[in-house]
Amino acid sequence: MSELFDSIDRNKVPAHIGIIMDGNGRWAQKRNLPRTAGHKEGVNTAREIIKAAAAIGVRYLTLYTFSTENWKRTAEEVSFLMGLLKAHLRTEFEFYKKERVRVLHLGDKAGLPADVVHELETVEKDSRNFTGMSLVLAINYGARDEILRAGKKMLEAAEKKAETRQFQAESAAGNIGRFFDIPFLPDADLIIRTGGEKRLSNFLLWHAAYAEFDFNDILWPDYTKEDFYASIAAFQKRHRRFGGIDGEEK
Ligand code: IPE
Ligand code: IPE
Ligand code: MG
C-alpha cells in the first residue's frame, strides 16, 4: 500500500484509538461554503479512516461525532448533523458488513431524536456479531456526563443490593467502569485531534488517563490515511511508562 503502512509494527498497534474530528466548519469557511459542507466532506474522511484503522488491526476506534456541548450550535447546524448521522448509519451498513465492523454507541441516547436512536439501535443490533474492529460512535457524548450517569447507576445498584458482598467488593475496588456506557471499552492508547486545538473538549476523560496524544493542524476533511499512519508510526516510537520506570519490572 505505502511505505508508512508497511512500516507499522503489527504487534504494537494501539488497541484503542480515539479521534476528535475537528475542523469541518473552518474547512468549509475557507472555501466560502456553508459549515454544513464541511460536515458532509468529513463523513468521507471518517469512512477512509475507519478502513485504514481496520486494515492494521485496531480493535476499537472511537470517533467523537457530537458532544454534549454541541447542542449550543444553531438549530440549523444541529438538525443538519442529526440528519447526516441518521442517513450515514443507514447507508453505511453495507460497508460495515463488508468490513465486519461492529458499531457501538457511546453517549446518552436519552437526549437524541427518536429517529437517530432508532438507526443507532438497528445498526448496533445488526452488527453485533461482526468480529472485526469495533467502531465506537460518540454521539451526544461528554465524558463528564458519562461519569455522572455511571455514578448514578452505581448508587442505584447500591440501593438494590447494599447487603451483597459482590457490590461491596466492586465499590471497594472503585469499579465505576462497570457502569459506563460500554463497560468493556478499554483505555485509550492514542488520542488524535485534528484542526489545531490542543484540548480534549470533554472527550474520554476517564479512558485517556494514560493515552498518548497527537494534536495536529490538519482540518478533518483534509486528513488522510497517510496522516493517520504517520500518527501511529510516531506512537510506536514513544515510551509508555504508566508511572513506572522504563525496562524495570517489580
Ligand atoms: C467538528 O468540526 C465536527 C463537530 C463538532 C460536529 P467543527 O464543526 O467543530 O469545525 P470547526 O472547529 O468549527 O472548524
Ligand atoms: C469537539 O469539537 C467535538 C467533536 C469533534 C464532536 P468542538 O469543535 O465542539 O470543540 P471546541 O468547542 O472547539 O472545544
Ligand atoms: Mg470545532
Protein model, in words:
The structure is a single chain. With 250 residues, the protein is an alpha/beta fold. It has one domain (13-141, 186-238): Decaprenyl diphosphate synthase-like (Undecaprenyl pyrophosphate synthetase, 3-Layer(aba) Sandwich). Helix content is 43%, strand content 14%. The longest helix has 21 residues, at 35-55. It is globular and about 60 Å long. Residues 22, 195 line the site of magnesium ion.
Quick summary:
With 250 residues, the chain is α/β, with parallel strands linked by helices. It has helices at 3-7, 24-30, 35-55, 75-91, 93-99, 114-126, 143-160, 165-172, 225-236, and strands at 16-20, 60-67, 102-106, 134-141, 190-193, 212-215.
Molecular shape: globular
Beta-strand level of the residues, as a percent range? 5-15%
The chain-level mean pLDDT equals: 94
The first-level CATH class name:
Alpha Beta
According to CATH, what is the topology? Undecaprenyl pyrophosphate synthetase
Give the CA-CA distance, first to last residue: 41 Å
The profile of the biggest β sheet is: 6 strands, parallel
Q: Report the helical percentage.
A: 40-55%
Bound molecules: 3-methylbut-3-enyl trihydrogen diphosphate, magnesium ion
Structural class: alpha/beta
The total number of structural domains is 1
Q: In the CATH hierarchy, what is the architecture at level 2?
A: 3-Layer(aba) Sandwich
The gyration radius over C-alpha positions equals 19 Å
Note the total helix count.
9
The CATH homologous superfamily name equals Decaprenyl diphosphate synthase-like
Extract low-pLDDT stretches.
Answer: none
Report the strand count: 6
Order of helices and strands: HEHHEHHEHEHHEEH
Side-by-side strand order of the widest sheet: 3-4-2-1-5-6
